[in-house]
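Prompt: For my understanding, could you write out one protein's sequence and backbone structure tokens?
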Amino acid sequence: MGKFPIADAEISKIWICKKCKSRNKAGSEKCRKCGYRSLRPKRKEIRTKK
């Protein structure tokens, strides 16, 4: 989680398409661009480089 709780709340509402990587609204059944039905929630932690 970041420094800004309001921004974190907005990020948690985003879903990402596993096929085309586009952003979708929360509660979406399918992707808005390609129609693919497999969506994942946006990561809440920042990934670090190894």
Remarks:
- Helices lie at 5-11.
- Residues 5-40 form one domain.
- DSSP finds one helix and three strands in the chain.
- Strands lie at 15-17, 23-24, 39-41.
